[in-house]
Amino acid sequence: MLLRVGELAKRTGLTVRTLHHYDEIGLLVPSMRSDAGYRLYRRQDVARLHRIQALRSLGMSLADIGALLDRPSPSLTAVIERQIQELERKIADQSLLRDRLVALHQQFENGDEPEMDDWLKTLEMMTMYDRYFTPQELDRLPLYQADDERQIEWKALIGEAEALMRQGVPPDDRAAQELAKRWMMTLERDTAGDPTLLDKLNAMHANEPEVQAQMGISAQVSEYVMQAFAQSKLAIYQRYLNEEEFAFMRQRYPQRMHEWPPLMAKLRQQLEQGTPPQAPAVQQLAREWLELLRSFAGDDPATHEKIRRANEQEPALQASVWMTERMKEYLGKAIAYLPAS
Amino acid sequence: MLLRVGELAKRTGLTVRTLHHYDEIGLLVPSMRSDAGYRLYRRQDVARLHRIQALRSLGMSLADIGALLDRPSPSLTAVIERQIQELERKIADQSLLRDRLVALHQQFENGDEPEMDDWLKTLEMMTMYDRYFTPQELDRLPLYQADDERQIEWKALIGEAEALMRQGVPPDDRAAQELAKRWMMTLERDTAGDPTLLDKLNAMHANEPEVQAQMGISAQVSEYVMQAFAQSKLAIYQRYLNEEEFAFMRQRYPQRMHEWPPLMAKLRQQLEQGTPPQAPAVQQLAREWLELLRSFAGDDPATHEKIRRANEQEPALQASVWMTERMKEYLGKAIAYLPAS
DNA sequence: CCTTGACCCTCACGCAACGTGAGCCTCCAA
DNA sequence: TTGGAGGCTCACGTTGCGTGAGGGTCAAGG
Fold it and tell me: Which InterPro entries did the record assign (chains A, B) (predicted)?
């Protein structure tokens, strides 16, 4: 029962080269050589090879197989479980990819042979979203599931904004403010009211000129809308503040309002992780929050009180802007725990 | 808008090494270098990189991407379709593997920590079957889905055969013949009556000592059963033949009967492929069939006629042995088309 | 006895898409 | 002017073999 490589190869369905390779890496070293140097495999070698093939068929690497065969492993079931999990991960990944490809394929199916450019642009957008959002987030991001209606809605909003800008309408104009409010409400809806999603979306728009181009939202437009939104809120606060307070706030608020979204996002994440309000991380966020408030409202507690009253009484300030009741409550507790400074 | 590698890497989520690599293979060569040799990427380079990333996210190889971007490909949808198909193949393969692993895992789940050897033996058997049968065949092979009942049944049959052999009972003994008939019927059932499966199973048993050991069917046992089966058929034919004819047949039949299964398998495959009986391949098989018949029945047409009559009238010859009515009819036609020689 | 042809041997490069140093250069701020 | 961050070019490693190149071995046939 001495087999030469060729014979063993034929019997096992492997190639001679493969057996050479196994020899080289010490996985299966034939226990004999002929005088001429031919590899001679004995029954025990063949048995080992069968085990190797068995384990290979489970997708194990040659290194792992060698380790497993050479010393009695602690737990074989554990090995299998690992293999299963890895396989399931791969399958999940590939299924996702396939679904996406199929969707893409359908999208361009009617309307024969799309232009290369349209094609790639769509693809690029998809990969952009991939870079800024996790798959779970994408699932929760309505903007990503963009149906035609949503597209049209946004096109209209953008068009209006551009028109106002072209006409030189200032951001504190009533029309601009109304547009900004609608814009923000739509945006809130399309980010599922999640400030984390909003924040990432903002980051994406800020960093990727191509996204701006594709969506049609230039940096100017978004800045204009932001300012108009700020003005719409200022207009409300004005009714609660005296002249001096309002003048102060009017100067500072528009510059600092960009800082809300990331702060809200972080707060929301802590809330969802169930971090208690007195935890250091949350306390830090509360401090930053107060800091931001002071930066445009000054240090006078009386002013702060007025702003709080406005927030409570004005429906326009209550609605929307990614602040839920739970968030307000959580923030309130965190602030209450802050040592008086 | 000139970016250095590090910056571009950061913005795209790639590594510097990856960008170097793309440069090396000519996929993305920065359109500028600084005086110090630093790679400088312009807007157009960034755009190209975005496209590269988009296509990569579809699972395309760098080579393919390069080809696609450098000349306008004929059909992009075709590319995607290819990707989808490849993905589905991979997914199918991996799902199969996972199912198998899960099954294996469950098999050993109860009965804490199995012995490495049992483990590997089971696995080895699985890979053996894999080598001799296609996945579709395995699906159709009842023996492979071996439940406990089947196992016990075969253990019993093998035990009986071994006992008879030990006791020195000759294959032409009544008891041996009865056992052989039951054996063949069980085997027919467990190969789903498909001679192709039978043939491959035989090949596996003949070539793989380990399979014999695992199943407990030694070459001696299977030869004994074969001979007993031959004797059981001879006993029937005897009633139709004269003494001389039977003496001739008795001498030859046991030696040649091994040749039936492969011949039946080939014939069945032709039948299933819908090959007409007058096709050369089928004609060749018919010739071989007649040749085999002559080899143990002699050249006298009268003898052949007697055998045919026996086959028609004897239920024991009708039943089983992997010959269906359709097969008989097909073979009959093929023989009828043979030029008289 | 010599020649085929089928096998066998040992290098050693190739593949895909980078990861990971090593050794050296450049730039900018302190 | 010095230190640290970032850049450069080799060049080897990874995984599991495929694919020659160049050269022995062995049994059969002329």
Answer: DNA-bd_dom_put_sf (IPR009061), MerR-type_HTH_dom (IPR000551), MerR_fam (IPR047057), TipAS_dom (IPR012925)
